[in-house]
DNA sequence: AACTAGATCAACCGCGCATTA
DNA sequence: ATAATGCGCGGTTGATCTAGT
């Protein structure tokens, strides 16, 4: 199957947008209560542009809720924290910074923040001190121990994130709950993360306990080793932002996948 | 004043996922 | 079930700006 081009290239304008083109696009979207179908928009609006170009111009520049101007130190700090959790998931970060676009955040990171981390002696990819790079012998050898150590380093950022967004995104529509990074992060934080940070099964929450993220009191029930192992296997593929951060990449077996789904369902009931 | 190198950022490209026919 | 299509995402490019020589 050969993918059709997003638009006929011939005769379409490229490069910087003029004020007149901006006006036409804004006017069309305002009059129609939204862009509708991006592919057909240029024709309907009378623009010699590809639909993709129109969408980009609107989402990155013309949208009325866009906040122009320099980033505040607070915003920069937040981006660094989010990057530690999410990696290069600019759109996910943009969702946490009202009025900022993924493109803006990406540009800020590549031009300023990345260099700032490097100058501070940190690896901009994993936010760890650069001197640790490549020194595998300094990392724990077993995968679960390595996992715990990595969780510990991610924990402050994850907690900042959870504190910041409080209960708002807990109201995600149910179809998104098992795939949304924030939801997964919350799962990780509430159950698996607690298990790893407490390290000893005797002080871990059982699957029946209440998650602590939403402020509900938790009933502490000792957790067995097999339970912890199961959670670890469940967590392997919880989301690419988590797996890439934690370096867990091997595929789940069908039974592990089943356990994972059960785990997500149970967490969905709790939070 | 002229040139150059580096920084910035708007825009483009290609890919993958989700939805529709 | 599958091909076609639309959309959004991350990576990259290139035009423009700015500071240094």
TrEMBL record:
Keywords: DNA-binding, Nucleus, Repeat, Transcription, Transcription regulation. InterPro entries: Homeodomain-like_sf, Myb_dom, Myb_TF_plants, SANT/Myb. The keyword Amino-acid biosynthesis does not apply. Residues 9-62, 63-113 form the Myb-like domain. CDD domains: SANT (cd00167). Its main location: nucleus. It is found in: Nucleus. It holds the Pfam family Myb_DNA-binding. One of its GO terms (molecular function) is transcription cis-regulatory region binding. PROSITE patterns: HTH_MYB, MYB_LIKE. Residues 9-62, 63-117 form the HTH myb-type domain. The keyword Transcription regulation applies. SUPFAM superfamilies: Homeodomain-like. One of its GO terms (cellular component) is nucleus. It comes from the Eukaryota. This is AaMIXTA-like3. It comes from Artemisia annua (Sweet wormwood).
């Amino acid at each position: 199957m050969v993918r059709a081009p997003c638009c006929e290239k011939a005769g379409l304008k490229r490069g910087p947008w003029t004020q007149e083109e901006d006006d036409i696009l804004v006017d069309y979207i305002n009059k129609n209560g939204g862009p509708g179908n991006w592919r057909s928009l240029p024709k309907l609006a009378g623009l010699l542009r590809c639909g993709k170009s129109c969408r980009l111009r609107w989402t990155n520049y013309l949208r009325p809720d866009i906040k122009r101007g320099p980033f505040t130190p607070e915003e920069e700090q937040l981006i660094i924290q989010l990057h530690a959790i999410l990696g290069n998931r600019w759109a996910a970060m943009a969702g946490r910074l009202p009025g900022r676009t993924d493109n803006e955040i990406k540009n800020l990171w590549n031009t300023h923040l990345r260099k700032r981390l490097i100058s501070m002696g940190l690896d901009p990819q994993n936010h760890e001190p650069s001197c640790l790079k490549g020194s595998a012998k300094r990392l724990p050898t077993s995968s679960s121990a390595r996992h715990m150590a990595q969780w510990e380093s991610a924990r402050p950022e994850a907690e900042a994130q959870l504190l910041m967004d409080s209960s708002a995104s807990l109201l995600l529509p149910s179809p998104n709950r098992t795939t949304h990074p924030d939801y997964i992060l919350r799962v990780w934080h509430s159950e698996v993360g607690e298990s790893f940070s407490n390290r000893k099964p005797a002080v871990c929450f059982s699957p029946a306990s209440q998650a602590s993220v939403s402020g509900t009191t938790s009933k502490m029930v000792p957790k067995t080793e097999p339970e912890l192992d199961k959670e670890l296997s469940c967590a392997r593929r919880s989301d690419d932002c988590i797996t890439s951060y934690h370096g867990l990449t091997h595929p789940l077996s069908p039974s592990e996948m089943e356990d994972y789904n059960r785990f997500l369902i149970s967490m969905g009931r709790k939070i």
